Amino acid sequence: MNFKNKTKNFKKTLKKITKKPLDIFKNISVILFSIQIFLFSLLLFWYFTNPVKITYPPERLIKIFNQKSKNFVGFDFSNLDEYLKVYFFGILYSINKPEIEKINLNINQEGLIHLEFQRLNRHKVNGNEIEIKKKLSKYINGNLEINKKSYPIKLRVKGDRRIHFYKSQSTSFKIDLRKGEKIWGLEEFSLQKPVVRNYVHEFIFHKLNKKLGNISLDYRLVNLSVNGVDYGLYSIEEGFSSELLEKNSRRNGPIFGIKDDISGLYPNITYESYSEISWVSQNQSLLRSGYAILNKLKQNDRSVYEFIDWDKWAKFFAVIDLSQAYHGALAKSVRIYYNPVTGKIEPISFDGHYGTADFSNFIILDFLNDSSNCNWICGEREWFLRFLLNSENQPREEFIKPYIYYLKILGSKNFLDNFEKENKKKINQMNKLFYSDFSRYDNIFWEGIFPYVYDDNFLKNRAKKINDKLLSTNLSNFQFSKKNDKLRINFAQKSLPIKIKSNCDNYNLNIWISENTEVKWPEECKELILEDVNSKSKKFYLFDNPSLSNELPTSLNNFYNFEEVVQGKKIDNIFYPSSDKIIIDKNTKLSQKTNLVIREGQSIIIKNDAILAFFGNIQIIGSES
Question: Which of these, 94, 270, 319, 568, could form a disulfide with 577 (CB 3.0-4.6 Å)?
């Protein structure tokens, strides 16, 4: 009984001791919360009563906050109603998982140790430690098992970003099959987590390129195990080989990338070819031709233009715009194939990586304006201008015309419906696998907290945005002024390029203009036709337009003194011209402190529309006649 009372007293004492700090903590929490509410209310009052609301309306602030939220944790307000669906589908598809091929990598203990060394030191791949770089590029032997069959392989760790190697069970690998073996028609490929290329968006990027006839990579999903340990869902990305070219109906030719460790922004990059040793021994002249074209392009040498397949590049950049895969458009990302049949270079789609920034109000054509919504790729403007501008710094007709044509094709209802019909089943299957894996938002360098969500209307919404942009040109936005044989063209506001066409019998001009400029124009030609990117046109009558005049009023400060223009002598403040004919052929003034004496027989002759201004006195000596 005494023991029970003691226990009861102890509990009461303990309660008294702990109650006071808890009460203090609660009071402090209430005070802090109240201060926060007060400050937030004060901020709201200031915002809604301040002109800042006009510059930053609520919808703009929400958009900015939403973008920052996506960048850091992967939370998107527009997907709020989708998150519950995705989690539900994740549970559903994890129970009833779609079929997927399974592969297992068998690697001995020594190989595992070497791969772990590569993973832990992969961040040094672009450093200066030669021995480390050698070990990072070394392949180790192993076997790949699929459908109860084993294939000999060599492999190494790959990737530049931390997301490729920060966890052992999400490590990216480069795989080469040995002894001439192939799987899915592939001899070499990469294994990496789907988040590395932003899930199904990479598949769409490659399929769009394939649809237009450009070279594209095989992109598929597998379930990976290493020595029987489940690594989960992985994507397979085809490597750059003769098999890739053969599958895309191309003859074998050199494929070029860049040396990441010694390359910067274009044109300060260094190219290297895949399988270079093989090309040096088998067809060095073909390899040299490919390098020569790329090096001449860096120099913007006009002699290289005939060796560029403008149509293929126009298709490629149009696909980039539709898929917003701008990372894949960079000089460091795109792989380049030198076609030995056509003698021209073509793009190979690679590492599109949709979602690296907000490019919703941007297309490649916007690079023609100095200030555009190009976001972080603005630094690569020089690369894109190689295609958009010719050596005279004018819009390049042979690229822009097909590029706009393919933008319209890609954005058409017929194309999008056919593309969806052909690929919807595969896209849905991939997304089911991503949801079953509870895949998280791609934050480029890390995985977000919130789930990956695919927008089924992504391509159609993007196509509408591009079509609206192409229709946005106002033909009244331009002013013209013709004086003698010079035509000035002025952009009143930032605009997409326009085409200038002469409307005269004996003069044929057909050029694209992207900024204020002046061109040579025949004096007798008084009309032109202005055409936008959608072939909508308007006729203009040309004249010397005073609204574009840049001739300032005559300034007396710029006039020459009388004695500088006319020969004579000056005695004290009196000037005596020496010639009978006093020629004034430039704007001239007689200063207030100078007196001019004109004797009999002398005359003043004014030429070249010159002006003679008198501020001093003039004395004329002669007879009344």
Answer: 568
